[in-house]
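Homework help board

Subject: predicted structure for assignment chain

Our instructor gave us this sequence and asked us to write out the predicted structure in token form, then describe one feature. I got the tokens but I'm not sure how to describe them. Can anyone check?
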Amino acid sequence: MNQPDLWLFFVLVFGIIVLPGMDMAFVAGSSLTSGLRGGLMAVAGIVAAGMIHTAVGASGFAALMLWWPAAFNVLLLAGAAYMVWIGVSLWRASRTVGATGAASAAAVVPLHRIFGRAVLTCLLNPKAYAFMLAVFPAFLRSAEYSLATQATRLGIVIALTQTAVYGAVAIFVASAQRWSGASARGQRWTMRGVGASLVLGAVATLAFAWRPAVAG
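My token output:
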């Protein structure tokens, strides 16, 4: 793969990552409930999960989803259920926002737990698997580099793009929260909006990504 091909891969990766979805909503929700540190920890977890996706994609294991629709649907259900759970949790946490606009200590999630939840969110994200099945294999083979080296190069592009996009989301949401700190009502409705978006996103994901069983 030459340099222009790598730039094309970056453009495709950026186009996928910048679309609002599970990962972006989780980063935004973590930034709302746990501030900038929580948002950046969520970004770190998503980047770590992205590396796992890259390794799975390079191994060819993800291609099993093409021949086993039931497995993909199980993953889809798990991801949708997790989106709903996070969305409902955000809605509940919005009730703890006090007069100063900050969540109560009971609503603050430890950073290591945010990291773990971010990893799980990304690993259950059907959009990531769709990308790994439809786009990643086309760039994996290279006449210049070994499979491992090429997968590493593509993984670095994915990780840097995730860091830039989701990091910007975390900084923006945390900064907006800080500037509007006096408006607890505004923060409550923002958290509820993110939570509702996750629930609606789960429904939309099931409706549009569900794969019918292959007739025998």
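Reply (TA_rk): Your tokens look well-formed. For the description, you could write something like this. Residues 3-209 form one domain. That's the kind of observation they're looking for.
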